[in-house]
Amino acid sequence: MSAPLYTALLNHRNLGRASFHTPGHKNNPLALPQDLLSLDFTELPDTDSLFEANGPIAEAERLAAKLFHAERTCISAGGCTLCIQAMLRLAAPNGGKIVCSRMLHRSAVNAMALLDIQPVWALPENIVSAVESNSDAKAVYVTSPDYYGQLLDIPAIAQACGKEDIPLLVDNAHGTHLMFTEPKLHPLALGASMTACSAHKTLNVLTGGAWLNIADNRFADGAKDAMALFGSTSPNYAVMASLDLARAWLEAHKNEYAALQQRVQHIRTVAQEHGIPLPGGLTDPTRITLNTASIGLTGEAAAEIFRGAGVEPEYADSAHVVFIATPFNTESDFVRLEDAIDLLPARSPLPVGAALPPLPPVKTGLRAAVFAASETIPLASALGRIAAQAACPCPPGVPVVMPGEEITKEVLGFLQGYGFFSIKVLK
Questions:
Q1: Going by C-beta distance under 8 Å and a sequence separation of 6 or more, which residues neighbour residue 91?
Q2: Mean local confidence (pLDDT), 359-366
Q3: I want to staple 209 with a disulfide (CB 3.0 to 4.6 A). Which of 66, 175, 205, 423 is the partner?
Q4: Residue 325: which CATH number?
């Protein structure tokens, strides 16, 4: 019998690499019961129904809300994407304007197009001023932490939103665990109205498990309807059960994150001694992001060295390698990572990338641009055309052009510098 995907997964498991990528359970047998496959049931009289929950699912959500100090918490078996879609639906049910950080996941762009939301784009460092200039916005939408573990100043943004009575929505996909770090850095604890938390990324949850956490009671009653608008009517019960189990584990093991923070700090020190600088600004204390460009090595090249040493990173780009550490990484995982850092060659630093170009002018609405007829053309021929897709070089992980925006000379040059050769534009 040929089963290529199953075989590929078996082959990867047999490599025996230390997992510093999602999911957060790290395939550690201590993270989850091994009988979850036998619990793959469906909506039955005694198992409850996700979007009409009034039994065990409702109780699991109540306990999760208590853990996160939320007014309401909703389970998602459709990943953080479903939580993002629901947040935007709750805040802007009939479309309208929202202030939106330029750094965001494509699922948010797609949801805004579906809901006919008009984003007012702002770079992360300019969110507060954008809020002050758009007091009529339906919401403010930001991502924190980002892929590299960088955190926004959520308290300052929340304060600005509070002055205008604008709800603050946070894509907290990579930060569910931040409610349990010291200090607590979870955006819900810092003033956010709603957060989309992709629990499977950093907790002992099966892939696809997430929580929508709601602090603003105005949005609590409609949450299930908003999720049902986008969610599957066949949610995976094993995924939902893993969320409930992770919540119970967190209640009993909150101190595990203090130990993890100390272990990660030691890894950062090892990297610093190797010539790799510590990350600047406020960062997730459990995320390991190595700027290998500082020692003359692209992130992609460094990732291959790590893989050769038996360590699988989460992500690599032209300047960084990112590692996701959780309490379910073993001590041997961390030792292997330390040893691999010592294998990195030290050379002259690579050139720093060009500064981001100014945000280009919006020529058509986001929804119209996403659903309009489009074509892919050589980038060299795209000057003055209207983009039909987001172009997001990494680093910095910020789209330099969004659907509906004009491809300016500055955008064109920036993308060419990152090796882009084509782009999708409106016909």
A1: 98, 138, 139, 167, 169, 193, 194, 219
A2: 96
A3: 205
A4: 3.90.1150.10
